Amino acid sequence: MTIFSQYPKRVLDVAKSGDATFHQLTPTLTSKPNFNIVQAYVERESAKKMVERLRGFRDFYPEEQEIRSRIFQTMKDSCRLFGFKEIDAPSVESVELFANKSGMEIMNQMFSFKDKGKREIALIPELTPTISRMVASRKDLVKPLKWFSVEKFWRYEEPQSGRYREFYQLNADILGSESYLADAELISLAGYILSGLGIGEYTKLKMNSRILLDRLIEKFLPGKKEDVYYILDRWLKISPGERESFMQEKKIESSVVLSFIDGKILNGFEDPELQNLYRIRDYVRSSVGAKVEIDLKIVRGIAYYTGCVFEASDIEEKFRSILGGGRYDNVIGQLGGENTPATGFAMGDAVLENILKAKGLWVQKREKQIFVAPLDPQGRLYATRVASVLRSMDLRVDLNVMERGISKQLDYASKMGYEYVIILGENEAKKETVSIKIMASGQQREIGLKNSKELLEIIK
Fold first, then answer.
1. How far apart are CA 74 and CA 332, in angstroms?
2. Which of 17, 154, 173, 329 is least surrounded by CB atoms within 10 angstroms?
3. How far apart are alpha carbons 373 and 380 in whole angstroms?
4. Which domain holds residue 35?
5. Is residue 110 assigned to a domain?
6. CA gap 137, 133 in Å, rounded
7. DSSP string, 206-245
8. Total structural domains in the chain?
9. What are the counts of helices (DSSP H) followed by strands (DSSP E) for the chain?
């Protein structure tokens, strides 16, 4: 019996809570407790408990991370093919940067705190203000700039499907061009990435222009800009009853709003910005063959978008937007830099994962991997050389790192799904050969280490 088994559970509870008034419980004890001993015991027992992952955050085990890495690589490769250059940026910024440039929704979602220098800083919730700061601080940059990055971001919001408190996001931006061609090329890149991920046929691109929208509102619903923005943006997120109640409350003619929704308000409307949207649409269709349409419900963040805005979604619109962006021509100038037109978009990983899984495209790519199993000390030393030779041939090699017999090594290789095991002992070391076991058939062949062509024929 240990000293702690004498104490009832409520004594340990008191110790755990930090309350040292054990004398109140003395009648229930067989001996007077030593608080320090009890507290040490409780702390030791508590340390054994599993610490749970924080809500809204995710773990990525190898089988998941391999898929994610391949997706991120597709994004990066696509950006490079379009002439974009990769950048990186800090994970923390001054709160002031976002206070000046982001909307209140993002401000309320930031993970912000004071650092040891008493400065108000935040984990970055988005990249546009950071990119704008970077451009504003360099006068020697040759424009237009075409930048991209895949970063981790943080927002303290309610976790739900397609939304987490920590997430990855591709950002692609063109800075220094006010032409519609920059918007068109950026949207083409978005369509190219969607196709590269295998979901081009399941998605559509939708675009609008804040300039066009403002002109339409001024002509057909003057003085109602803020309210029209709200109802258009929330149209698919609220019920028909809520829509009607809002329009009645704000004295907005519902028939006019419906003509915004179905696009009929554009019939016969002549405007240069509308012509730009038609040009962008034709450019994207010609460039990547993506489905793209004008949709006046696309409003996006009011805080800084100034021109063309766009989103991508699944055709059935069962999920949140896969990506979104637009033109933000005023932000860099507001940060003290030269007035610089800019346009960009962001694609998050969470909604993308949901869509890929729904379409059966979230799958591991089967890549041949070899397990090297030494039989004895001579084989173990030789195995390091064999592994180096195989890796130089761009083959994935897992070299045994445990003291275990060949049966357990083969069992491990089978559980890991390895297709080939190279077995090496003293005989192979002396002859400079390798014994290759094909796991699916159980066949085994011996080949000279220098006979790389035959090795590759078997393995590849």
1. 29
2. 17
3. 8
4. 3-47
5. yes
6. 6
7. EEEEHHHHHHHHHHHSTT-HHHHHHHHHHTTTS-HHHHHH
8. 3
9. 18, 16
pLDDT the model gives residue 24: 46
**Nearest-CA neighbor of 153 among 125, 127, 173?**
125
Q: What is the spatial distance between Cα 129 and Cα 331, in angstroms, rounded to a whole number?
A: 7
Give yes or no: residues 232 and 316 share one domain: yes
Residues of the chain with pLDDT under 70: 1-35, 37-39, 41-48, 100-103
Please tell me the predicted confidence (pLDDT) of residue 140.
93
Give the per-residue pLDDT at 1: 43
Position 55 in a domain: no
pLDDT computed for residue 302 by the predictor: 75
Residue 238 has which token pair? 């609220």
- CA 2 remoteness from chain centre: 51
**Please, what is the end-to-end C-alpha distance for the chain in angstroms?**
63
Is 86 found in the same domain as 20?
Answer: no
Instruction: Find the length of the chain.
Output: 460
What pLDDT is recorded for position 70?
96
Residue 54 falls within a domain, yes or no? no
Task: Determine phi and psi for 143, rounding to 5 degrees.
Answer: -105, 155
pLDDT (0 to 100) of residue 23: 44
**What's the rounded Cα separation, in Å, for the pair 34 and 296?**
72
Phi-psi map region of 223: left, alpha, beta (phi>0 left; psi -120 to 50 alpha): left
Is residue 320 included in any domain, yes or no?
A: yes
